[in-house]
Every structure is written in C-alpha cells, then in structure tokens.
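Our preliminary data section would be incomplete without showing what the modeling component actually yields. Below, a chain of 245 amino acids is followed by its predicted structure, encoded as tokens that our downstream tools consume directly.
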Amino acid sequence: MTQSVAPSPKSKVVLALLIVLTIGTLYYLDVGRYLSLESLKEHRDRLLTFTEERYTVSVALFILIYVVVAGLALPGAVILTLAGGFLFGSVWGTLFVNIGATTGATIAFVAARYLLREWVEQRFGAWLGPLQEGIARHAFNYLLTLRLIPIVPFFVLNLVSGLTRMSVRTYVSATALGIIPGSFVYAYAGRQLGSINSLKEIASPQVISAFILLGLLALTPVVYKRWSGRTADDRRAARGHHEPE
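Predicted structure:
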C-alpha cells in the first residue's frame, strides 16, 4: 500500500515564488493594454482574418490565453469574452470561454489548496470546523450562487474555495455551470463589437437583476432543506411534549 507524501515547505515556497514572479513579469510587461476594449476594436479585422485562416490554432490560443488570465488574476477576462463572441460566435465563444475560465479557475483552486489549506487547517481548524462542514454539505449550491451573482471577485473566490473542504469535482461542475450566463451575455455582446463604447453598456441593471435572481434560485434547495429539517424537528418536539409520562 502506497502512502501519500506531504508536500515539502521548500516546494511550496518555490511554487509561490514562481507564481509571484510570473504575475509580476506579466504586469511589468503591461499585457493588460492588449486586453482593452480599444485594442480589441482596433485589431478586430486582423484578428478575424487570422481566425478564419487558422481556426483550430485560434481556438487553442484563445483558450490558452484565457487559462492564463483566469488562473493568474490578470485583467482582461471580460474583453477576452467579448473577443470570443466576436471571433467564434455566441455559442462557440461561450463554450471556449467556459473551458478556459474553468481550467484557469481550477488551477488557482488547486494551487491555493496546495499552498495554504494545510496552514489554515492547523491555525484555524477548530474555529472553522463547523463552517467547513456546512460548506461541504452545500458546496455546489453555495459556489453556484456566488458564480451567478458576481459579489465576490472571480479570482478571490477561486482562492477561498481552495481553502475549504470542497471536492475538486464539485468545484469544477459548479464553476462551469455558474459562469455560463455571464459568459453568454458578454459573448453575445461581442457580436456587436463595433457598437459597444463601454462595458457598462453590457452590464445593465436588468442583466445584473437577472443574475441575482438566478443566484437566489440556486440557493432554493439549501433553504428548503433547512426549512424542512426545522419543521420535522418541531413536529418531533411537539409529539414528545404531548406524550404522556
């Protein structure tokens, strides 16, 4: 029987330094200037021509870039989603965005778990125990709600989720499902790229309200379980109170 080997502190330090160095280098090179609405509109003809001539390569590059942006919390995910809709269409663009964003988010999730969860459990395990158990029981619904309602920044949610006892399968499925509505909205808007002057035009109050409603619907099973559980406990308590001694 093989035993799992705990990661050494040295390997964690090396990985953390590598991540910080990569992020710092990309910010120093100011890659964000290429992921702006103005830059996308300026180069849209060349991007469209390249995509038409090398479709498979374009898809692979697009997904790879999205993985890097999502995994390292670089600015420009919204612009990439617009580009996906513009270059590949609303449906295929949403699919490619979903693959890249979910993969990048999962990498960040696993990295946070590898680097920090053991330390968090040792320092705050007793205090966080009940909270961790509650999250683990309803992890899918909680994460799905937070993905649908953009209250917590995408990358922050990736890291925080990695510190919980949520399974990777639950994380991937809730993330992939939860980002579909937002991805489709921006990918669809990308088809009208020439008429967009500001990202605020896309995230209208009506769209935000729809996301909030979807998020609240995702919490319905959790609320129902808690309500039905309390009702059952009240009925048992009432029967016990009225039973003769």
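The longest helix spans residues 90-137. The CA atoms of residues 49 and 87 lie 9 Å apart. Preliminary results of this kind motivate Aim 1 of the renewal.
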